[in-house]
Here is the input.
Amino acid sequence: MTSISGSAELEFLTRLQRILGEGLFSASYKYALLLSLAELSIEQSIAPDGTLRIELDELAERFITLYWRQVAPFKGRILAQNAGRQASIISKISAFKSAAPTLAVARNRTQWPRLVREVGRLLVEMPLWKLQRVGEERLDFLYEERLVDRGIVLRPGIAACFRSQFPIVQALVQTAWLSFVQRLPLNRSILGPTSELGEFLFGSERSGLKLVADGLRNVQGGSCFYCMERIRDGGAVDHFIPWSRYPLDLGHNFVLTHASCNQDKRDMLAATGHLQRWLERNDTQAAVLDEIFDAARFPFDADASLSVAEWAYENAERAGALVWVRRNGQTSRLTAEWRGCFK
Ligand SMILES: [Zn+2]
Here is the structure.
C-alpha cells in the first residue's frame, strides 16, 4: 500500500475540479471516464511503484456499465448525453440493451466483446486524450496520454488518491454530470423549461426566485449583470458563486443575466471585474436588496455570502483556475488581484 500525503490529495482534487469546472464538455463521456477510473482504482491492485495499469477493454466495460442504467427511458424518453446529436455510445448501448434486458444477460451474449471493442475505440477517439485538457493547457496528471499494450497507466499515487477521495470524487463528478444533462437543449422537452432536477433533489426552496428576478431587474436597470447589455426576455438568475462550488442559495449570491451569459459561465467563477461590481452592488444597494429578499421571503445573509465568495476565490487562485470574462467562452487566469476587492 503506497501512502500519500495530504497535500498530494489536495492537489489531486484541485486539478480534478479544474477539469470539471473549466474543461469543455460536449458529451458526458468525460464524467463516465472519471467515474470508471475511480471505481477501477478501488477494485484493482495498485503496483508497488504506486501506478495502476488499466486495460482498455476493462475501461470500456465499466463505461458501458455506467451508461447501462442511463439508457433506460426517463419520463418515456432516453435523455440526451450530447450537445449535438445523441451520443453514439448511447445509441450503441441502447440498441444492445433492447436485445438483452440485464447487464448479466448482455455480458453472456456472443456480440458483447464486439460492443466492448467498439466502445474502447470510441474511448480512444473521444475522451481519453481530451479529459486532461483545460483550454490550451494539458494537466496530464492522471495518466500518460498514450496506449501501452492496449491499456493506460495511472501515474504513481493517482489510484491511491482515487481510493482515499472516492466519495468526494463521486459527488463532484455526479453533480457535474447531472447539471450537464440538465442543461442540454435536447433534454428540455423532457425535463421541462425550468429543468430543476438537481434543485428538486438537493436544492433549497426556490419559490421566491421569480420575485427576486424582478427585483434584480430593477436594481440592474434592466441589463445583464455581466455584459451589461439589455435583457430582452426573462433572463436567467445566475449563482454568482456557482452552485457546484458551493451550494449557496442566499439572496446576495444571485445576479440577473442573459440566459446565454449564464450558460456560458457554466461552473466557473466570474473574473475580478465582475467580483468588484458584485461587491459594490451588495454594498451600495444593501437596503434595496434586503427589501427585495424580504418581500420574496428569500433567505439572505450578506456576510455569509461574502465569506463564501472569499473562500471560493482563495481556492481558485491556489488552483491557478481560469475565471469567466464574457460570452463565447472568454476566460482569463485568476491572479491575486481579486484580493484587492476585499480590502
Ligand atoms: Zn449578458
Observations:
- The chain has two domains: 6-190, 204-342.
